[in-house]
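user: Please supply your own:

assistant:
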Amino acid sequence: MKRRYYYPIGKLKPLKGTCDDFYQEVRKLQYPYLPISAASYRRLLDAPADYYRMPGKNGKVVTFGNTGGGFALMPLNPEEATWILKEQPQPGSAVQ
């Protein structure tokens, strides 16, 4: 039996922003999705953030959800990711 790989969520950085309704949000996504475990999904679901940035200088902006009988991190398309990143507080700026 092949062991399933799950993406480790420990290094995801929470981002500000709120997901739209399901049908609007699905239009923002692009493949490939990255599988996560049910426990990781529950941790993300219990956290206050809807969007996260993956590690690295050019880390992708992702959200998460249920897909194909499992759970996954779901990357946003480049246009939507840029919009989310523009809405983030800049380092050194006053937090509102």
Observations:
- The CA atoms of residues 31 and 62 lie 11 Å apart.
- The longest strand covers residues 61-67.
